[in-house]
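== Folding task for one protein ==

=== Format: two labelled lines per protein ===

==== Paired sequence and structure tokens ====
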Amino acid sequence: MAVLQAMRELVAEQGYARVTIEGIAERAHVGKPTIYRWWQSKNAILAECVLSGDVLPTPVATDSPTGARYDAIVWFRAVLVYIDDNAPLLRGLVAAAYEDAAMSQQLETHLAEPIAAALREWVGGLADGEGGGGGGISGQALAQLVHGTILYRLARPPGSGDDASEEVFEILMARLGRIGD
């Protein structure tokens, strides 16, 4: 839809804070009443942009021959690529979530909880003998550490370099005892 595409483009060009409904309407070649018929705010438009398919890759625990640690690292690398490719939209979504309780709930429901559920499943697999015991880290703690790493990456200025997100994730996976799979 033109409105969603306009939002994506404007956030990438100007940053979320500078985007206005007027600007979205102009870019999408629609009237403001058309926008307000479908969305009540620019936050709602942004949420739909990000949550209607443009979401972080969801981790999936598998029984692949390469092992769950490899699957987790491949997933996290995909997350980092997604973050880098969609940083302006994701920064806008996080900023909007601080201001809007409904947006915060959508972020939790569509992004945070699916990631946490899959990470809890990976950690649960350790209790069943894969890699040995979970390294003393609960699935919820792992999810919060991963979310913190993602937010830190989003908060860094573009092109600032020296990002250790992947290394942080590998350390977490090693702590879980997945080095040997």
Remarks:
- Residues 97 and 104 are 4 Å apart (CA to CA).
